[in-house]
Every structure is written in structure tokens, then in C-alpha cells.
Amino acid sequence: MTKKALVIGGGIAGPVTAMALQRAGIDSEVFEAYERGSEGVGAFLTLAVNGLEALRVLDLHDLVCDLGMDSSLMRMSNGRGKPLGTLTQPSRTLKRADLYQVLRDEAVRRGARVHYGRRLVDASIADGRVRADFADGTSAEGDLLIGADGLRSRTRTIIDPGAPRAQHVGLLNTGGFARGVTVPGETGTSYFIFGKRCFFGYLIHPDGEVWWFANPPSPKEPTQEELAAITPARWRAELLELFKDDAGPMADIIRATDHIIPGWNTYDFPTVPRWFNERMVIVGDAAHATSPSAGQGASMAIEDAVVLATCLRDVPGVHDAFAAYERLRRGRVERVVKQGRRNGSGKAPGALGAFVRDLGMPMVMRQIAKRDLMAWIHDYRISWDAPVAAPVR
Ligand SMILES: Cc1cc2nc3c(=O)[nH]c(=O)nc-3n(C[C@H](O)[C@H](O)[C@H](O)COP(=O)(O)OP(=O)(O)OC[C@H]3O[C@@H](n4cnc5c(N)ncnc54)[C@H](O)[C@@H]3O)c2cc1C
User: Does domain 4-167+268-378 have CATH number 3.50.50.60?
Assistant: First the structure.
């Protein structure tokens, strides 16, 4: 019997889940909290090769590769300009808003129903069906509910009211798009600079625009109100101050940016104990947010969506299908979250930590490249045709 899924969240995992379910013969509707017009703001992200390959399973790879830019080479250096290492790994960097848009548009083109302005407030199970209630007073019913509702997932707390909160990783995020500035480097490369007081990354788009981000350290987690109170002018001044003793083009890039994206906190989720109940399950950041330092959050969300669809296709019974999905995904995603923490810890290490990092990192980077130590992340592939076995009871 064809099942009907209610997918909560129209970010990355939501539309990809809808398209994967469709391929598995399962009908779905997507409910996104925000109105369509409120997209278009925000930064950029990098899709690693494993995420790109997961998109390929659904024939979405080419769509994404029309956006943004290639970013397959990474060059690391410190605030004195000393090279710390290079890594090569196929990847694509694109604006978050463009990725959201293209995924949603393609889901709709393939027949998915995407509703906007529908914020999930509650969900309940009765007679083997699930009912979702939205803030606008409307509701929807289906056979299962998939929470692709991100870091602050409401679905997660419906499944487990005691679910842990995301943890602040001690870094803020800000960035922007600079025009009319000439910086060292070439397109296709991400430049990462471990400044004395702040981490900085930039890429040069083929059209000359410089895409950048910075991670000012902040051991204490600022509230949303505290962050909102920081004006763009203050961000600019604080960033210029943070980079004033560093070699590199940071100050030029910051000055050439008309609109500095207001800063936000960085979180991760080392573990979320419960991913599902009888009829509801979480995917993407809702289940396992990783710090942006892993460069894997979007890729993990895409992988989840594809794997979950294969489980629902092959494993009889919704609950057992969810269990199979968790069995296939939990180990991998929690390992990625740990890796993200490790990557992030080198961004604000203190004087001694910076000394050790600068000493050890070139060798570590050489070992990573030589022994392909990140292959477990990047070489992961999902076979759509391989049947998923039911969990052993
Ligand atoms: C600064 C930054 C840089 C990053 N860089 C990278 C990177 O380089 N590489 C990478 O792979 N990942 C990166 N990530 C992570 C990546 O953006 C996320 O992991 C990814 O967006 C997760 O997708 P998702 O669909 O699970 O959640 P989201 O993209 O957050 O989507 C969740 C959606 O659910 C909606 N929603 C929330 N609550 C409700 C509700 N109650 N009802 C209905 N809808 C709701 C939201 O409005 C949103 O549209 C970065 C993240 C940040 C913040």
C-alpha cells in the first residue's frame, strides 16, 4: 500500500526526502514554516563529494553543479602567512539560498506539494495515523511524519520531550560577499586562515566576487537578542580589529563587503538519543547537527533523506523501517559530528594551542592526504538498488 508522509521543513533534507520518497513510491507533502518570500538571505556552504554523490542517486547532481563554484582544493595558512597544508577533495560551494531554492523548485517540478507558512506546533498518533497541527490552525494527516525541521526541530521534542539542546561550540559565524577587491588566489580553491584571534575563509568566484566567512571566538553563547543588537557597522569594526595583526587579505575583503551578514551562533549535537517513535522520525540537522567546521551538515542531511527512503521502500512496517534507518545512519553521523568538533577546536586555540597547531598541522595534513584519512567521510556511497534488510528483533 502506498504510504503518505508528512515532511516537516523545506530546507535541504525536506525537499530531498520528498523526492527520494517519490522514487520509492511513497507520496508526501512538505510543510515549511516560513513564507516563500523570506528566503534569499544567508551565507554559503560546501557540498562535499559524498553529498554530491547522494544527490546523484536522485539525478539532482547536475542541477546543483550549475550553481556556485568548484572548491576542490583547500589551502590552510596561519596569521603570519605560513602555509599549514593543502587538501584536494571534489566539492562545490554554493549559496544556501540558491540550494534551498533549486531543491524546492525541483521537488515541485517532480510533483511534490510544498506548503509555505505552515509551522508545525504539535503532532499526535491515533489508529496508526499521524496528525500534524500547524500554527495557523490547520492540520494534516498521513501514515508517517518526517521531521526535517532543522537544528531547533519541533519534531525532535514531540518524539522526546527530554531531548537535549544543541550545544554552542564556542564560535560565532559571520561573512559576506565582497566586490571590487583583488585578493591573492584562484578560483576553485578555498583559503582558510587561522588568524591570531579569529578564523577566516574565502573563495574567489569566477565572476570576481569574493565569498568569505569568519568565526569570531565566543566561549559564552550570546542570546538572539544580544546578537541582533550588534549593528553591521560594529561587526565590521570588530572584525577589522580581530584581524589587524594578521597577514592576508581579510581587512580588504571586509572593507569591500557592503552587507556583512549579521552573526549567528554555531552549534552541534553530539548525540540525540531518540530519533523516532511509532510514526515519526527525524532527519538532517534535527537528528545530528554538526558544526560547520565539518563541512558536512548539508551532505549528511541529503544522505539521510536517501537512506530513509530506501528503508521505507524495503522494510515492512514503518517502525522497523525507522529502526533500519537509524542503524544505517547513527554511527556515521555521530562520527562526523565529532570530526567537526575537532576541526573547530583549532580555530580558537589560545597561544600554546596555536603554537602546537602550527607545528603539527603541516605533518597531519600530509598524512591525511597521503593515507586518505578522510576517505571514510568522502567515499561513502548509497546504492539505491541494494535492498535494505529488516532489523533483527
Ligand atoms: C554558517 C553555516 C555554514 C555551514 N556550512 C556548511 C558546509 O560548508 N557544508 C555543509 O554540508 N553544511 C554546512 N552547514 C550546515 C547545513 O547548512 C545544515 O546542516 C543543513 O542546512 C541541514 O539541512 P536540514 O534540512 O536538516 O535543516 P535546515 O536547512 O535548517 O532546514 C530546516 C527547515 O525547516 C524549517 N522549519 C523549522 N521548524 C519548523 C516547523 N516547526 N515547522 C515547519 N518547518 C520548520 C526551517 O524554516 C527550515 O527551512 C552550515 C551551516 C551553517 C549555519
Answer: yes
